[in-house]
Structures are given as structure tokens and as C-alpha cells.
Amino acid sequence: MNTILFPGSFDPFTVGHQSLVDRILPLFDRVVIAVGKNSGKGSATSVDERVASIKRLYGNDPKIKVTSYDGLTVDACRIEEAKWMLRGVRSTMDFEYERNLADINRKISGIETILLFTLPEYSAISSSVVRELDNFGYDTSDFLPKQYI
Q1: 72 DSSP 8-state letter
Q2: Which one of 8, 19, 29, 120 counts the least CB within 10 Å of its CB?
Q3: How far apart are alpha carbons 80 and 86 in whole angstroms?
Q4: Residue 26: CB atoms within 10 Å
Q5: Bridge-partner residues for 3, per DSSP?
Q6: In what order do the strands lie in the sheet with 112-117?
Q7: pTM higher than 0.85
Q8: Which of 94, 113, 93 is nearest to 103 (CA)?
Q9: 125 with 143: CB under 8 angstroms?
Q10: pLDDT tens across 26-84, in order?
Q11: Left, alpha or beta for 92 (phi > 0: left; psi -120 to 50: alpha)?
Q12: Half-sphere exposure of residue 43, counting CA atoms within 13 Å on the CB side?
């Protein structure tokens, strides 16, 4: 079974994230959306709440698994038997960062990273921007999947 792991904090899971999942889904037998436990980042919601929200979004799609993980992403790939990792790229800065991570991950684990470029209409959206807008009381519904809200 061809499995790809899509890791992230997903705090929150945005329409940009949803677009990446929807675009990669036809290419793989299984997509694992893996919510990382990152104690270094302040979170608006708990990992369990984020996992539950993403599960509601994708319902019972048998090709999608939503889980959480702690530790290195390559170890989560091994646990899920994923030979590939999905990462989104919004800008050249993202590209350089993701390229370096992909090189390290390949060297230590043999796991390949597939980069998908964000659709232009989503390139300015990031979880941190959505959180900031929400903290100041702005309507963020345009940036979140409709079923997720």
C-alpha cells in the first residue's frame, strides 16, 4: 500500500492544508494526516481537539487516517509504514527550509519528501496568521474548511 504522511501542527487546519490533502489523495492509497505534539509551540487547541476536528472534516474516507505523534516525523512515517512525506510550499523561503529538511530526512531514514506548491489563492494563509486574526476577533471562516468550522 502506497502511504504518504502529511505532518504538521495544524493549529488550525486551514483551507491550504485541505487543498494539499485533496490534491495528493488521488496519487496514494492512503494519506495519514499526522498532528505533531510540539511543546515548543503555543497552541490554541489541544492535539486531541485538532485530531478530532480533522477527523470530522474527512468523515469516514477510508483512504485518510488522522492521528497524532510525538518525536521525529520520520519515526511517525515508520510507524505508519509511509515511504513518503507531504509538505506544502508557499514561498521560496518555505522551499529552502523544506528542501533542507527533506535532505536530512532522506539521509537519516530513506523517506522521500514530496513538495506540493500551494495554490495561489492560499499562498498567504498560514495557521499562525489565522490564529492571530482569531485572537483579535476577526472572522477567519474564509481560511478554514467549511466542514471544519
Answers
A1: -
A2: 120
A3: 14
A4: 7
A5: 30
A6: 64-69, 30-36, 3-8, 84-89, 112-117
A7: yes
A8: 113
A9: yes
A10: 999 999 999 999 766 667 789 999 999 999 999 889 999 999 999 999 999 999 999 99
A11: alpha
A12: 18
